Amino acid sequence: MEVEFLALKDLTSLEKSFSVETKEDGSQGEKENVCIERRKTTPLKTTESSASVFLMSRKSSTSELPHITPVKRTVLAEPWSPTTNLKVLISAASPDIRDREMKKVLFRPIENDKVKAAGSEPLVEDAEVEDSAQFEGAFDEEDAEKKPSRKEKSLGLLCQKFLALYPDYPPAHSPIWISLDEVATNLGVERRRIYDIVNVLESLTVVGRIAKNSYIWYGRQRLWTTLEELQRKGREQGYHLQMDLPAKARRTGQGQEEDGGEGDSGNAGGNRKDKSLRIMSQKFVMLFLVSKTQTVTLDAAAKVLIEESRDSSSHSKYKTKVRRLYDIANVLTSLELIRKVHVREERARKPAFKWLGPVKFSNSGNMENTLDVAQGEAAVNEDFRRAKMARHSSFSITPTTVSVQRQISSAPSSPRHHLTGFQNQCLDYTRKTMSNGPVCQLQRGGSTDRLSVSLYAQLSHSSTSSLPPTSTHPTVLAAQPHPEHLLIPSLHCLAYLPSLSQPSVVMLYKAPEQQEWAPAGQRSAKTESEEEGKRSWEENEQEEAVVTKKSKSGLEKSEKIGAQFQTEAPVSSLEMANTTASSCLSGQQGATESHTGNSIRDHTQPSHYLYVPNSAGLNNFNFLIPAGQPPASLSLPPSGVSTMALPYVLVPSAMLSHYPLVAGSVQQQASDNPTSLGFSLPAMMSPATFMVGTTPHSVGDASEISGRHLPSPATPEQGRPNVSTAGTPCSPSGTRQNVSINTSDSSTPHTPKETTASSSKAFFQTPGTLGSIASAVPAARKRGSAQRRLDIGHSAAP
DNA sequence: TTTTCCCGCCACCAG
DNA sequence: CTGGTGGCGGGAAAA
């Protein structure tokens, strides 16, 4: 696994190399800091959102800096495509998100520019990239305007990214550890935000708390069981009655649960604190589960919750509750358990949410572990499907991808855990994907078969974890384990999104076989989803929210494109993406032909691609590297720096972002984006070769960088394999080499630290693994400390 | 305007 | 204390 990570990193690094210089800015490194700081300090923050992540590593050098001004960097970072890409993918998965994504996408280039302007960087990247630059220019136009909008920072989006980092169904035997610090760092947000997400996830047992800053990722394995329990509890409590009641009537017996209730769900340690968000989340979910309509209005939920808490339900209380519910709803939406709708009640339409998850838990309770869940379940339960539908799970990251594996390099990092799980997951994902609403539409397209393209993404950042010591992460150990598996699964996997904001790399590949996958059940699911989609269209009112948005925002474009196959439905961005990818792989030409995915699908070309989001330097371009390919293309020199030559495809990020590119319908895009995209895929894809410098590992560097204790490779923790080596067999592509890419050295002078650090470490590590620490930690902590100071100041000062 | 909800202050708590 | 958590609500961006 690690390998993979490494690989990703490497990839990242590659990117970096391009842009290398960015790193040099010292400041840039820490996004975290940046993020944090910037907010306060600069307005710039706007953009920031998540993107920044990767950079973190750099920060290593200066632990202190963090606070300092990172702004520039941030900016830089953010804009990037990586994030964007994610978003895109995500969006594909879920419409809502999509919208946001779309919007966002547009601007990144701009941002980049801005950044440049900011001056911090050097831009070298640009220079290097030059070509790209040109392209960029083109793209820029499109981007031009966006900025940071609030949406980019939304909890929902953040949650998506978070979810994308881990597999829905991690292997039972190898738990995935999560370090909040790392996550925060990777996602480029403050910890505070992560708490919000984690608390909700914990309430549903998607994660379980182990210790401070440490959580275990359960994914959806326990979710169904938890939901079932919640349903039971909800009934016991009479929530269903309450729902019906007017407002206050209910009160019936609520008291009991309150805090205690949740227990099983997962909270490990009971804290009273848990109270609110966690409990509130469970109660909110209960309301859905006991609701006949499976639709709950915020208003009703808030009232019910208020009563329980017995608070005085002053208006302010109500307001506060509603705010919290929005937070929860955003997370649940990301989980695809609910979706926003509007219910018109008497006079007006009220915001409400509709449950998309399972309602009947026919199976005996424990599905969780079962088989590996996904498959079995999927097949079996409709409910599951439903749940799945939504998700963009596809995005989830699974780590494993081959590419990743390969890499490994040094980083100590972490978390490979994911990997293990993958296999299963992969399957699942696909299914999900299939099933998912968004995707579902494929059928229409006529292509029943989907291609399975998988995207693997990785985080580039190195988050180096700050916590090295933590130690506890057993997971680590586990994780590594069997690279092989990884590979296999990968075949099936539809898509993995890069989890992070910056996925450094994404692998796209098409499954060789075509599958028939969708078993009847799934199909049905699809159908449903489709139907839903239709309804929404038809129905306008309620659901529309989602749908509409899509259409409005980016969708139109995509849809148009997609139209060929589908109409209304939200296009499955994924497909689009897939298509694209596949097309690329296959030969570019296809794109045109295949407007639809079909053609593409047909192509069997399996190919794996490594998708390298353009990072800083190349704003607009993304590289698709045929992984599978022949190694020939790649060569790795054994020793440290080596350069690889890879055939690659440049894809304007913009395009990627808008899925549209895919189909060949460049035009459409064009329409959207005014100038930019001029190219059609085919064109875009021109293959080329590119050299990447590799550095074997930067691990050391990283450690150095951080200065911290970082264990660096050696880290005790886990035994993670560490590093290097890695060699995991990568899969299909076999080219692990690519992976290795990493590095730093590459061409630029840069600071190794940064590069390495960032690149290498980060990826997924889990919880404390990496040494990255510095970067990550600092930011968070610093921030925290800062606050503290403030706090202290208060208290003390007086 | 209203709906959403980001942001981060600040209280709490465990170590 | 110190640092991790997370309640809470102001206020501003979306709708």
UniProtKB/TrEMBL annotation:
Source organism: Ataeniobius toweri
Sequence ranges assigned to domain E2F/DP family winged-helix DNA-binding in this UniProt record: 150-219, 272-357
Sequence ranges of Polar residues compositional bias: 721-769
InterPro entries according to UniProt: E2F, E2F_WHTH_DNA-bd_dom, WH-like_DNA-bd_sf, WH_DNA-bd_sf
Places the protein is found: Nucleus
Keywords of the record: Activator, Cell cycle, DNA-binding, Nucleus, Repressor, Transcription, Transcription regulation
Protein name: Transcription factor E2F7
Domain of life: Eukaryota
SUPFAM superfamilies according to UniProt: Winged helix' DNA-binding domain (SSF46785)
Chief localization: nucleus
Pfam families listed in its UniProt record: WHD_E2F_TDP
Family of this protein: Belongs to the E2F/DP family.
Gene3D superfamilies referenced in this protein's UniProt entry, alphabetically: Winged helix-like DNA-binding domain superfamily/Winged helix DNA-binding domain
Start and end residues of each stretch annotated as Disordered: 241-273, 515-557, 580-599, 692-798
Biased composition (Basic and acidic residues): 525-538
